[in-house]
Amino acid sequence: MTPGEPQPQIDPADAGDDAADLLELAAATDTVARRFLSTVTEVGAGSNPDSAIPLLLLAVSDLLAVGARLGAIVDVVPAERFEPDVGPDPDVEPLRAALANALEGIDEYAEVVDPLMGAELTTSTVSGDLVAVAQSLAQGLRHAEAGGTLEALWWWQFSYLSVWGDRASSALRTLMSLLGHLRLDVDDDVAAEAEYDALQR
Predict the structure, then answer these.
(1) Largest CB tally within 10 Å, which of 8, 67, 77, 139?
(2) Which residues lie below 8 Å from residue 145, measured CB to CB, with a gap of 6+?
(3) CATH number for the domain formed by residue range(s) 12-200
């Protein structure tokens, strides 16, 4: 699922005076995207299940930080006015199934469809969110590997605003809620004993 690791290249003639900034953002997005894909793949494989939620929380948080930079800059405009064909989309269903299995019992959550338009609720899954994000990131990485760094940056920005920013934000809130329940929902006796131990140190 995770592609190779090319060095992003941006032609200053295409990027203008902002070439260095775009190159730096492309490299940062590339690095964080690969780390995210690696993390979700490891979680789906069942590696270190006790750390699955914290690892996902870190990966999604890092990704949203770089995503905020993509959303804050002006629109990236690639040299070509069409998206080059980089081949068929990768099959993400095995990853979706693996994550759903790893998150069984805590995967599904309630979500407001659009908080600006009303209080309509729907049901989503963390696994579905993570896979939607992974699919968008992987498409950008494929453009980068084909030498289209500006195209990759355009795709990451467009898909952040249209797909993965929203899905990652929903996943982050749910993961934070899960972590809070796991850490704070303890029996009163256990909490009192922990407090006593802390006071005695």
Answers:
(1) 67
(2) 3, 4, 6
(3) 1.20.120.1550
**What does the alpha-carbon distance between residue 190 and residue 54 come to, in Å, rounded to a whole number?**
22
**Placement of tokens 């006790």 in the chain:** 50
Give the long-range contacts of residues 108-114, CB within 8 A, separation 24 or more: 109/174, 109/177, 111/170
Maximum separation of any 2 CA atoms in the chain, in Å: 67
C-alpha dihedral over 47, 53, 55, 60, to 10 degrees? 130
Separation CA 134–CA 24 (nearest Å): 21
Could you give the CA distance from residue 113 to residue 129 in angstroms, rounded to a whole number?
Answer: 14
Sequence-ordered list of residues with C-beta below 8 angstroms from that of 155, at least 6 positions apart, any chain: 83, 136, 139, 140, 143
Instruction: Count other Cβ atoms within 10 Å, centred on residue 19.
Output: 15
Q: What is the pLDDT of residues 112-169, one digit of tens each?
A: 888 888 888 989 999 999 999 999 999 999 999 988 888 899 999 999 999 999 999 9
The crossing angle, in degrees rounded to 10, of helices 52-72 and 149-159 is 110
